[in-house]
Every structure is written in C-alpha cells, then in structure tokens.
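Dear support,

I submitted the protein below through the web form. The confirmation email said the job was done, but the results page showed an empty box. After a refresh the structure appeared. I'm attaching both so you can tell me whether what I see now is the final result or a partial one.
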Amino acid sequence: MTTSYFRSVCMLLLAVAWSAITFAQPVKNKPNIIIILADDLGWGDVGFHGSDIKTPNIDRLAKEGVILNRYYTAPICSPTRAGLMTGRYPNRVGIRQTTIPPWSDFGLDTSEVLLPQVLAEAGYKDRALIGKWHLGHATLKYHPMRRGFTHFYGHLNGALDYFTHKREGEVDWQNDYEPSKDKGYTTDLLTDEAVRCIKNYAKDSPFFMYVAYNAPHGPLEAKDEDLKLYGFDPSKPRYGKGGPDTDGLRGHGNTMKQTYAAMVTCMDRGIGKILQALKEQHIDENTLVLFHSDNGAAGPNSGSHGELRGYKFDEWEGGVRAPAVIKWPAGGLVGGKQIEQVMGYVDVLPTLKEIAGVKTPSKKPLDGISMWPVLSGKKQSIDRDFYLGNGAIISGNWKLILDQGRKKMQMNGDVLFNIPPDYSEQHNLKDAHPDIYNRLKTAVAPYDAIKAPREILTKGPKNGFIAPKDWKITKE
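What the results page shows now:
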C-alpha cells in the first residue's frame, strides 16, 4: 500500500469524524434559556421607555438585545402565566379574568403540555422555576415539579409579604416539595437562587430557567437602602397600614410610588446579577434571555403606563402591552434592534420549541406561532390575529375592543384604533372603517365563544379557609 493510499484513508476518516462533529454541533449549541418575568411592571417603568426609575441592567439588556415593541400579554397574572406555559389562550383552560386565590381548588389543566415538558424532549435536563407559580396549589398534581420542572424555589401563591413570606397567615416559601426556612427579602432570595442554579447548571448545558419575580406586585414593600435611592426620609411617616401577614409597616416608604420605584430597582439589580453570572460562567453568548412583564402596572399610585392608556385588568394598551426584550448573541439577536411585529406570551412556547429543535407535533392546537422567522430576520413580518381576551383583538396595526358592558374601562360602545400611530387610543375609527370593524368583530367571536371544561370562579369565597401549615401541599 502506498503512502498516498494511507493519506487518503486518513483524510477520509478525518472527514467522517468532522462530519459527525458537525452534525452533533446543533445539539451542543442549543441555547440555555432564561425567561425573566416581572410582576405588574408597567410599560413606562423602564429606563428605555423614558422612566425616571433606575433600571440600568434592563436598559443594558435592551441595548444589547432586541426590543419587542409590540409584545402583548393577558391583562392579569394567572392568565398570562397559563398562556406562557402552554402556548394557548388561557380561556381554553378556564383562566381568563382573574387569578387563582389561595382558597381555590382550581389549577392549570393537567392534560396541557407545558413549556418545561417540551424542552425536556429537546434534552434540557435542568429546568428550574424560581419565583411565583400561581397556576394551582390545592393538590400535588398542580405542583410545578409535576408539570415538567426539575427544581422549584419560590412561592405557590401571589401577593405574599416580601419580608415574612406569608400569605393567609402561613409562610409560603418552597424548595422543591418542602417548605423553606430561608430568611430575607424575596427579590434577593430569588436572585441568589437563580445565580446558584446558573453556576450548577453551566457545566451541563443546555438548561432552562424561568425566573418569575413577584416584584413589583403588591404589597408594596422595599428595603430601606433602596427606598433611600428615591428620597426616603425615615423621620417622616410611612404610607398605609400593616396587615395580618406583614411585620407592621416594614418596607413601606413615605409614598407608594417611592416604594414601587425602589422595588423595581431592586429587581433590576437582581437581573444584573443573573446576567453577570452568565458572563462569569462563559455562557452568556449562547444563553437566550427573554424579559417581559406579565401585564400592565396595577394603577397610578404605583406604576406607569407611559404614553399608553389603561392599567392592569384593562385591554387598553397599558394593561396588555408589556416592556419586553430578547437577547441571544450566538443566535444573532444582538445590536439594539427594535421589532414592531405583533407577538406575545402565547408565542413563547412555539418559538422556543423551534429554536430547541423539537419536531414532535403539539398534542393540542397552539394559538401562538413561532416568531423565530421574524427574530432571525428571515421574514420581515408575519400576518396574524392576536386575541387579547374579552372581545379584544389585534390584527396588524388595527385593534378592536368590544364594549360588552365594561364598566371599569369606562367604554361607550365598541372602539377601533390604528396602532401605531394612536398608541394612547384616543381616536375611535369604527365609523370611518366599517369594513375593518366588521372583519375584526367576526374574527374575535370564535375566541370569545371558547368555553373550558372547568373555569375558575371570578370571585371565590374564602368560606372559613385555613391555609395549610407552611403551605406544604400533601394531597394527591
């Protein structure tokens, strides 16, 4: 055998080996995925939207990533979380106009396939929920660890005290299936756990982490050092009154707005620590980070809707349009771009499913669609209708809201807006464009007609409810 023959054989073997490496590369290069969800953060409460609240880390994320300028959610917490986890509109699972209260036996339908379960199929071994669940707690079948997460650190309920961690008189602070005795301000505890998990998971990428801060949702409570950033004077009265789950007026600033601003800045600092941990572990380039709020600000005494109209609970832009940013340098999502594509919470699952390379068809039809073609620049835009709930729908630059007796929104008949340019929803174009009005009215009807097999009560009575000790769930 000649030298040239051996050389040819060696070259062939090297080619085969290189081919194997090349084909294996997409699996290795699947991004780590971190979703950071703020709670009741208003459109106007981030620096990149002109806020006076100090949010340098969120602003840096916006500068280095892609701003999703028309990113929509449900107008309230549990519905957004349900749609985020399922890729389906929340009224399909009976969660639309309210959250799941502590005394409710309702939970997210266990026949739904959730985002961590989808990512498990793609090889994401570590899948952590850090923060607020709020999708069911009455029995273990609703527990996050039964819904695809491999780790849970945080709280089952919403609106718990930031210092005592209590809801309905019992501490709701969990570590997997067991109550946690960790002490501290909830925002800091969640940040510390996220950083710890990043360090543990970095060597075994890819991983998925859902960091669901309870900030800046009420009760409005901040640390004194953060309050002082906004002029807090301890010699002056603190706002409001204490409650059964609180430690007096601990955490209350001189005003609600001052307290809210301090809470947002603390959360922003935590986001900065998460981003820094990614950098220190040398995995920041191939980590996809999605940040957004779950709905609009709760009201004028706390957050801001900026130029938009309305607040939480409303289908006005201020209730359903969230500040949102996505960053993934290795995937090309860099450079301070801004996308005007209508997208939102139900699109997260199908988008991440495509990015992760999951080919298995969804067991139930998804309402969301993959936004990767737009994010990656392969498409300029995607034509679609986006249902906001309760007779409201977006279609391109057009938005319809049906009156349907909405007292809180103070409506006087159906409204049709062109967004942009009318971000503040001041000019009703229903009469000027009857064709568009009728088309969208027809389009929204099937969504409004959806009836889930079981629905959460809009107002569920406590009926003498007593919370379980340490909110430990044992019932199957």
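Response: this is the final, complete result; the empty box was a page-load delay. The first strand starts at residue 32 and ends at 38.
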